[in-house]
Design brief:
single chain, about 140 residues, alpha/beta, Rossmann fold, six-stranded mixed beta sheet, 6 strands, about 45% helix, about 20% strand, globular
Length: about 140
């Protein structure tokens, strides 16, 4: 079963001091640094990473353009990244080992109800930096 890590981009940037510092100087700098970190994680593990941001109108891209790069999704103008994350989990939760990183309690509860393993952004960084199995966080957030 494929492991999928879905990350709430806004939550990750605002909960990570060094990313927030970059974001405050230049919004794209924080986003780019997060993309690099998640790309490195995907390249070193068996996880497939999906990074979701609020609004640029249903845009989907692969960082770098190759099949091995992370998927970056943007919510449509009239919806939130939260809704995109919840929809992804509802669709993929039964087919894959889906793990969600966010600090939004409602997103985590909804994703948990749909079968995902959920974690805070701090716990996500523990996973990324230490190779911790995120399933240990199941229902602890």
């Amino acid at each position: 079963m494929e492991k999928v890590l879905i990350v709430d981009g806004h939550s990750a940037i605002h909960a990570t001091p060094w990313l927030l510092d970059l974001h405050r100087v230049n919004m794209s700098s924080g986003r780019d640094a997060l993309v690099r970190e998640l790309s490195d994680f995907q390249n070193l593990t068996s996880y497939y990473v999906v990074l979701v941001f609020d609004g640029q109108g249903a845009k989907v891209e692969k960082h770098g353009g190759s099949e091995t790069d992370i998927m970056i999704m943007y919510s449509q103008t009239n919806q939130t990244a939260d809704a995109v994350i919840e929809r992804l989990v509802a669709r993929q939760g039964k087919k894959h080992d889906v793990q969600v990183g966010s600090n939004d309690r409602m997103v985590l509860e909804s994703c948990y109800a749909s079968g995902a393993h959920v974690m805070s952004i701090d716990q996500m960084w523990d996973l990324i930096n230490g190779g911790v199995d995120a399933r240990q966080y199941y229902r602890k957030v």
